[in-house]
Amino acid sequence: MKMDGKTVLITGSTDGVGRYVAAKLAAAGAKVLIHGRDKRRAKTLADEIRARGHGDPIFYPADLSSLADVRQLAQAVTAEHNRLDVFISNAGIGSRTLGTERRTSADGHELRFAVNYLSGFLLARLLLPLLKASAPSRIVNVASLGQHPIDFDDVMLTKDYNGTRAYAQSKLAQIMFTVDLAAELKGSGVTVNALHPATYMNTTMVREGGITPVSTVEQGGEAILHLAVGDDVAGKTGLFFNGMQQSQANPQAYDEAARNRLRALSLQLTGLTAA
């Protein structure tokens, strides 16, 4: 995909792999919409992009643990831009971010489910009119190989909480949404794919978890860019990739009944109505 004149939104793009992807897309000619919570880091990235003569990125602050903030972000993007060619849902928190105990979001939902999955679900749905109007366009959900089936009797993990399971469940939910939304958008010109970019990249999230990085941000960034702009995936949708290669997710991702349950729950929790 030629990026000149294209508009791209990347959540979680003031640090780590999102930052790398934002800089690369700006260098390719895209108008980059940066998202994060840290204004200082956002300014540093924007200054770097401008200094290289790669356009004028726009920063949108939002706390994705708050559905109200997600709505404000979507409203700002749709009000200020007449097109959105690529939406990369990259923001997330790790299994040990803010500690190992169970935490809840501003809306009372289990924090990892809220930030890693529910915010991206709501944001994608609110941005769909803009993405459809800009077709052919793409949604890329940054998920993980770490996946755990959802227990619909205790989605918020109120019993026997485990941060690793919470993280893995939220990442499988992202992939289930990817498969579900791709089917819904068939024929619209909007593709939706998910990926595990790379294992334990050298990011803040990985270091916070006390894990020694085993791959680079560049490795993961290139895998994300492949789905965002690669010509060979232009017509592909509803798929999960491990790095650059198409792969298989946890079997629950391909269970239509489970995806229907997740969709109904997600619409209820976000206050949206069924499409």
How many individual helices? 8
Radius of gyration: 17 Å
Unreliable segments of 5+ consecutive residues: none
The total beta strand count reads 8
Strand fraction band?
A: 5-15%
Query: CATH homologous superfamily name?
Result: NAD(P)-binding Rossmann-like Domain
CATH topology name, in short, is Rossmann fold
Strand-and-helix sequence, N→C?
A: EHEHEHEHEHEHHEEH
Major sheet: 8 strands, mixed
Shape: globular
CATH class: Alpha Beta
Strand order of the largest sheet: 3-2-1-4-5-6-7-8
How many structural units, i.e. domains? 1
Portion in helices: 40-55%
Tell me the span between the first and last alpha carbons: 29 Å
Describe the structure.
- There is one protein chain.
- The chain is an alpha/beta fold and 275 residues long.
- It contains eight helices and eight strands.
- The protein has helices at residues 16-27, 39-51, 67-80, 111-133, 163-184, 204-208, 217-229, 256-270; strands at 7-10, 31-36, 58-61, 86-89, 137-142, 190-196, 239-242, 245-247.
- The chain has an eight-stranded mixed β-sheet, sandwiched between helices.
- The longest helix is centred in the middle third of the chain and has 23 residues, at 111-133.
